[in-house]
Amino acid sequence: MRLVPSFRQEPTAPPASRPGAQPGEDRPDASAAGPDALTLGRQVRHLRTSRGLTLEQLGRAVGVTPSLLSLVENGRREPRLSLLRDVATALGVPLNDLLDPEPPSRRAALEIALDRAQRTGSFARLGLPTVRASRSVPTPVLEQLVGLHDELARRELEAIATPEEARRVNTLLRVERQERDNYLPELEDLAERMARAAGYTSGPLTHRAVSRMAEQLGLEIRHVDDLPHSTRTVTDLEHGRIYLPPASTPGGHGLRSLALQAIAHRVLRHERPRSYEEFLRQRVEITYFASGCLMPRSAAVEFLEQRKRSKELAIEDFRDAFGVTHEAAAQRFTSLATRHLDIPLHFLRVGDDGSIFRGYANDGLPLPSDVTGAIEGQQVCRRWGAREALSRRDHATESYQYTDTPAGTFWCSTQVAVAASGKFSLSVGVPFAAAKWFRGRDTTVRRVSTCPDESCCRRPPADAQARWADASWPSARIHQQVFSALPTGAFPGVDATEVYAFLDRHATSPDD
């Protein structure tokens, strides 16, 4: 399954949406797939009526009943190829005209959209009569009906955007990434090409190079101190500006990464997401593109291969060589290690409560998961390096550990960091056999984990259980998000009112 399309050499503007496109509807390459039955039927009707023919007259010409032709024109019967050839001959057009995947007119597109909307289960549940898009129905009425159906579909999608939906999508994307070793060659090629075109040669990508990349797309980067609190960046498409905060957030993305992610939406020709899955998929793509620009494949692989030959692989060195955050370096390493260094691995970001915030593994590490396969929020074993490091006092450098698990022995390197939300650990690990390539392989720290066996670290010792089970009453800290549905809107969690007021303010600013 592809995460990204094949990209052209030069970026282009996003294509316009089709009339009546349903939120979450797939958008296949129509030229490759051909028309569906409804579009084909509308092509036949358009050509028939433009020639002044009735169903009876066309039916006599091709040797079928008018009722069969009516079914074809309404998309309720897929005609045989022989019938299509006869219809094309009778109408005096090439067969390809009937097989054109695009509706023949704006009016036809609206009719198709209305027909599709009225065939959905959502419409059927309303118990309303259908509206036949006859020639007597004015085009503005069709536009209004299609618009109302689109809005109903959008609201229905928002209504099911629950935390369970987010976990399902996250799991889907994680499995896709694991199947591809977290390596997206199309994005690798594009990021490398754009970085080089902006003047990149080696080492860290400069802020000036990022600005040149934006300029090549007709965009200007501006730093402001009143960015809407619900956003990381805002792009003003009308005036060609990318607004960034004046400084990056500790534990978050750097300013160059934020700018590159905003640029990526334009380079990848993203349309406004029509489902939560599409929103998260876009986030995966822009994050990957940004890391590919900050640590271009050719330079990054050359650096890592040299370190592997010296048996001195270390995420902190990789981080410092390209001037990125530790997390960015760790995640970039997961994209390159398996394909270019032949090293399977795992990555974990774990909160100070032991729960997984983000994770990836293609080395067989048994990540804890719920019945749906989701790992987010699951507790990692207290014996794992990602958890052990959080209890250590020295957080200035990476810590190393071997862990024996039911799936084998793994080595890991862990760095502890602090963000506004609290302390967290970043851990990169490999199977025992691959530890020989890494600095820290000589550590004597070794733990044994038998999780998911509860006796490993989840079940209290018997004496403590007997002493305190009936003599204690802890008050649990409730996370408010437990009671919340996912944020709604095309860009979940973004306060549109605040964003538009921000854009108005800066569009009319004297400094602009």
What report would you give on this structure?
By secondary structure, the protein is α+β, with helices and mostly antiparallel strands. It is elongated, with a radius of gyration of 28 Å. Among the domains are: 30-159, lambda repressor-like DNA-binding domains (434 Repressor (Amino-terminal Domain)), CATH 1.10.260.40; 163-294 and 470-512, Arc Repressor Mutant, subunit A, CATH 1.10.10. The chain is 43% helix and 11% strand. It contains 20 helices and 9 strands. It has helices at 30-33, 37-50, 55-62, 66-73, 81-91, 95-98, 106-117, 121-126, 139-159, 163-179, 185-197, 207-216, 255-267, 276-294, 297-309, 315-322, 326-341, 385-388, 462-468, 496-507; strands spanning 220-223, 234-236, 241-244, 346-351, 356-361, 399-405, 408-419, 422-431, 446-448. Mean pLDDT is 85; it is low at 1-33.
CATH architecture of the domain at 163-294 and 470-512: Orthogonal Bundle
Radius of gyration: 28 Å
Give start-end ranges of low-pLDDT stretches: 1-33
Order of helices and strands: HHHHHHHHHHHHEEEHHHHHEEHEEEEHH
For the largest beta-sheet, the strand count, sense and barrel status come to: 6 strands, mixed
Shape label? elongated
E-strand count: 9
What portion of residues belong to β-strands?
A: 5-15%
Question: Gap between N and C termini, in Å?
Answer: 44 Å
CATH level 3 topology of the domain at 163-294 and 470-512: Arc Repressor Mutant, subunit A
What is the spatial order of strands in the main beta sheet?
5-4-8-7-6-9
Portion in helices:
40-55%
Q: What number is the mean pLDDT?
A: 85
CATH classification class of the domain at 163-294 and 470-512:
Mainly Alpha
Structural class: alpha+beta
